[in-house]
Amino acid sequence: MHKVAMSDLLSGVRRGEVILELRGITKRFPGVVANDKIDFEMRAGEIHAILGENGAGKTTLMKILYGMIQPDEGEIYIRGRRVRFHSPQDAIRMGIGMVHQNRKLVNAHTVLENIILGHPHAGRILNRKRVRREVEALSRRYGFHIDLDAMVWQLSEGEKQIVEILKALYRGARILILDEPTSALAPPEAESLLSSVATMAEDELAIIPFITHKLPHVLARSHRVTVLRRGKVTARLETAGVTEHQLAREMVGRDVDFTVERPVVPRGRPVLQVENLSALSNRGFLALRGVSFTVHEGEIFGIAGVSGNGQHELAEVLAGLRRPVGGRVHFDGRDITHASALERWRLGIGYIPAERNAVGSIADFSLVENVAMNYYFDDRFVRRGIVDYRHLANLTRDIIAEYEVATPGLEAKAGHLSGGNLQKLILARVLARHPRLIIANLPTQGLDVGATEFVQRQLLTAKKSGAAILLISEDLDEVLALSDVVAPIYEGQFMGLVPALELERGHIGAMMAGVRPGGRSA
Amino acid sequence: MTLGVYELKLTRRAGLGGRQAARISSLAILMALALFSVLFILADVSPWSAYVEIARYAFFNTFGLPLTISRFIFLLLCTFAFIIPYRAGLWNIGMTGQLYMGSLAAFGVALALGAKQGRMVHPALATTLLVGAAMVGGAAYAAVAGFLRGRFNINEIVVTMIMNFSAFWLVSFMIKEGGPFTGGGGEGEGFPLPKAFVGPLVAGVPYTFLIALVLAGVLSFLLNKTRLGYEIRAFGKNPVAAQYAGISPFRISMIVFLIGGALAGLAGYHYFAAVPGVYRIPKNYGYFGDLAFYGIICGLISLGNPLAAIPVSFLFGGLSIGGRFVQGKFHMNFGVDYALLGVLMIVLVGFQFFYRYEIVWRKKE
């Protein structure tokens, strides 16, 4: 291929000009057509979102655009000129930048060093001062506030994303791909990111956010939307005049009910009683500072808070995976403060961890073996130390059918499932134990609209059958929609316990930010 | 890359089946033999006739084959000793020390039963006691590494490696002149076992042959069908997820090292108490300690599969015997056995690259 510098191709673009075009992109994987004759076009100065559920083919399309994989059929044009990407290097040269959802930064390096890393000029002599000046100018222009000398590990998710964006821009990207840009961000961070992105669009950059959820963000900022479903483009819409319901219907292929029906269940006996519980974080500081609460049968106790305020430590202590440094935990009246994780599973506590891949599943194991994670100790599935894999295969088959887990088969590896399908599998595996207490940590994080609705409905069904549920979520809407009692958590403490009937959005939001009821600040 | 009209591309494998792994290993072995030919040529020996001699002696000769089988059993047991911790994600580099300690325990029991004084003991009882002692000795020694890893997260590779040296010198102390196990002949070797204490032969080969083969099946069953095997594999693939599921890291690391150590102890018992013509801790016990390291290589090549370990250990055992033989036959001035194993090992490890990647080629458009 003839190598063309990107400046040749993308210099002097005019607003509204078509700068990127995909024609008939098709990519097949064994057993599935991930992209089926996809057409797509981008204009300069446009934010053109690509929407789709997990498994709709977004990731494949994104990888093709960024040169990570090559399409089986179809062509890519940049300003009308046919291009071929053999690797991300080619795509970068053509002015395409990518902001990954799983950040690809070096944690032990500073922000500036990360921005320099991999830059075409980094191999030669580098003028740090000049780079700093230029990066600072970029930050100012787009309203990013970031300390270039901070270490990456000190940054929040939102700040890391900013580093990725700056890195791409500094390399000269004119077309920016954002993978789930707002999914890991707290509401204020998301707002400021979206306004920065809008400024970029005014500078004739073309921006392609790939999104599965947080539809309001799509509506608020993008100009056009292309919706994918099962590898095909199902809709191409101007955002103005489209409703959230319409988008969801295009994505899922049916009507989606955003308001979940909250069943009325009489509150039963107390199941979980927590007194003055404290725990350290991995870094050794007091992350959980003396929380007390009770969860009853048929009750959903929601803990709302921005990540890093002690809720994950709380979940781990309750699951028996982290030792508390103070306080007591009673389950069904029995002291389980020092019980092991296995004892808790046996007693009827089911834990759905936030990290689906790192904690909740074993990527190299088959689906049956992953289901076995919660049954290998269960007398119904183990006789004389021998695991009844046939019985487990039946259970797995039932789960796949009932929860509509999209998979080529029972022996597929869990690592090949999409996020939503993996979460369904984990949830189903835990719920099939009929636990008395369910600890659900960020159960719908990163899930598409359809899967989110499904998971929420399953939790409500469990509640109806009398389970006590501890729901930890960053999504205020979710907590408000599902919980009977909400405890906003801030710096390891509850800012209050608010019964469902008195719930008010702004009120809880303020408490998540550390304001106690009555105006006192924590 | 392009080659004429063909385009070569390196792609990451989605998964690896047993058959593909076997094919890659076979290719690697051929490649290693081809590379080693250079050494034969440099020594003025025709590679073809050298390999023919190696194979003929190791696998088809009435003197060579029993030696190969004894080596094979030894290597297979060492491979098992590596595989079990390996499947739990832990590295047992201490088969050497464990087999020494197992041997010391077995010979200690023999001594206590009066083997040196020629006291009569029922052979079945003696054999059972010696095997038991060897396994307990190896297991106890390995348990130190398992404990330190499980309780304090201390690196098991370092611990097992260091403990190899302690065990080596302990054996030396025990069997040299003045040591409690000395043969007394002034030759620096351990006392010979009387007939009642030596492992019986079955069809001319040590009975440990049967134990090793049965163990391959037992361990395979353990790993694939039992609850413990599930826990070991889960812990090996993702220790964090395993803990989430209630699997105790301490318990797993203790168990796998106890099993691994017991198997290594059994390997020591096999070579020193059941192989005809040995029946003592020999002066050159260090040679067998070194050989035990090939258990690591065999374990890696067989991808931690106890059944796949059988052909791999057999091949390595045969090449080490055949290599030593052609070295003498052609008057070569270097250790063909270890040199050959070494080349084989490096090439096999290099070929592991193809476990993760494959080369796809197609005609250019």
**Beta strands of chain A, count:** 23
Content-based structural category of chain A:
alpha/beta
| Contiguous helical run count of chain A | 17
Given as residue ranges, the uncertain stretches of chain A (5+ residues, pLDDT < 50) are 1-7
Distance between the first and last residues' Cα of chain A: 62 Å
Number of domains of chain A: 3
Strand content of chain A: 15-25%
Low-confidence residue ranges of chain B = none
What is the CATH H-level superfamily of the largest domain in chain A? P-loop containing nucleotide triphosphate hydrolases
Largest sheet of chain B: 3 strands, antiparallel
SSE string of chain B: EEHHHHHHEEHHHHHHHHHE
Protein described:
The complex is a heterodimer of chains A (522) and B (365). Chain A is of the alpha/beta class and 522 residues long. Helix content of chain A is 32%, strand content 25%. Chain A has 17 helices and 23 strands. In chain A, the strands form 5 sheets. In chain A, strands 13, 16, 19, 20, 21, 22 and 23 form a 7-stranded mixed β-sheet that branches. In chain A, helix 13 packs across helix 14 (419-431) and helix 14 runs parallel beside helix 15. The termini of chain A are far apart. With 365 residues, chain B is mainly alpha-helical. Helix content of chain B is 68%, strand content 5%. In chain B, a hairpin with a 2-residue loop joins strand 1 and strand 2 (6-12). Chain B is globular and about 80 Å long. The model of chain B has no long low-confidence stretch (mean pLDDT 91). At the A-B interface, helix 11 and strand 18 of A face helix 8 and helix 9 of B.
